[in-house]
Specification:
Radius of gyration: 30 Å
Low-confidence stretches: 51-68, 233-243
GO biological process, one term: DNA replication
Largest sheet: 3 strands, antiparallel
Strand order of the largest sheet: 3-4-5
Keywords: DNA replication, Membrane, Stress response, Transmembrane, Transmembrane helix
Number of strands: 5
Protein name: DnaJ domain-containing protein
Order of helices and strands: HHHEEEEEHHHHHHHHHH
Number of domains: 3
Pfam families: DnaJ, TerB
Helix content: 55-70%
Distance between the termini: 102 Å
Mean pLDDT: 77
Number of helices: 13
């Protein structure tokens, strides 16, 4: 009688385990050995969530026929648990409940976070900066530092956005997407904002020359951007003709109204040094670049003079 009772407890435990997505064999053994106590323990344990693939826009199946997918164990990048998946896409780990992306092509799992994303225009700008930095073959520390400085000065991103920007930059360095495609997409996105387009060209110029000389490929990117954005000869006088507000002046210098006049003056001198056209005279650069440098110097001086006048 005792044996049949133990067998019954084992069967009950295994049935409950199946509903809780737990190992049926192990819990049959536990129920068989410790009887009702095993069942009580099992009842208090939470149900294990099975790995699942999201549908809708998050799903990235490599094949359209799910029945053809094979099963494969991958490691959750968050907690290291082995998770059974069947195709590329977004999956949830049953252990830590975190989402991760599995790519069938490289047979690897990656971190996934859809809680935030960069605005489309910012994403394109960062990609273009990456293409400019990589155009000479190697992305130097100076180029990375310059991009970081430009981003922090112009966008003032949060820590979360900054991480996304750096991730986008690193991915864009290796992506097959061409600078031509990115520049055209940028123009479609920002064609009504001539100031931003001009600033992008100026930023590209700073990145190109930070290593001391401008590579022919970088010169090619600059020329195409100037032409595509409509900033060639006779078309770049918009800044001089546009009345600058005091907020515009601080933005041009990369300062804020809370900064001291000494800080503003220091930033002004730095920008004059970085953008002075004389440094391009010995280099083979498009004439549009020199014209843009002259216009930038004029813009910087006017902005500085207005700030000084407003504080006197």
């Amino acid at each position: 009688m005792g044996f049949f009772y133990m067998l019954l407890m084992g069967v009950i435990a295994s049935v409950i385990a199946s509903f809780k997505n737990r190992n049926v064999v192990i819990w049959f053994a536990i129920g068989f050995i410790i009887n009702i106590f095993g069942i009580l323990i099992l009842l208090f344990l939470p149900t294990v969530r099975q790995p699942r693939q999201y549908g809708g826009p998050f799903t990235e199946p490599k094949h359209s026929d799910n029945q053809n997918h094979h099963r494969i164990w991958v490691v959750c990048p968050h907690c290291g648990t082995n998770v059974l998946v069947t195709s590329s896409g977004i999956w949830q780990c049953p252990n830590c409940q975190q989402d991760f992306r599995y790519d069938e092509e490289d047979n690897a799992s990656h971190y996934y976070d859809d809680s935030s994303s960069l605005p489309y225009g910012v994403e394109l700008i960062v990609k273009l900066f990456a293409k400019m930095a990589k155009a000479d073959g190697v992305v130097s520390k100076r180029e990375i530092h310059k991009v970081d400085e430009i981003i922090k000065t112009s966008l003032r991103p949060s820590e979360t956005d900054l991480r996304l920007i750096r991730k986008t930059f690193n991915l864009a360095k290796k992506s097959p997407e061409t600078y031509v495609t990115i520049i055209r997409q940028l123009y479609q996105e920002l064609y009504q904002d001539i100031n931003t387009l001009a600033y992008i060209v100026e930023a590209l110029l700073q990145i190109a020359r930070v290593d001391g000389s401008i590579h022919p490929k970088q010169e090619e990117i600059l020329s195409f951007a100037i032409k595509q954005f409509g900033l060639g000869q006779g078309q770049n006088q918009y800044t001089a003709e546009k009345e600058q507000s005091l907020d515009d002046c601080y933005r041009i210098l990369g300062c804020s109204q809370s900064d001291s006049l000494q800080t503003v003056k220091k930033r002004y001198r730095q920008l004059i040094k970085e953008n002075h056209p004389d440094q391009y005279m010995s280099q083979q650069v498009p004439k549009e670049v020199i014209e843009k440098a002259n216009q930038k110097i004029k813009e910087i001086k006017e902005a500085y003079e207005k700030i000084v006048a407003s504080r006197s």
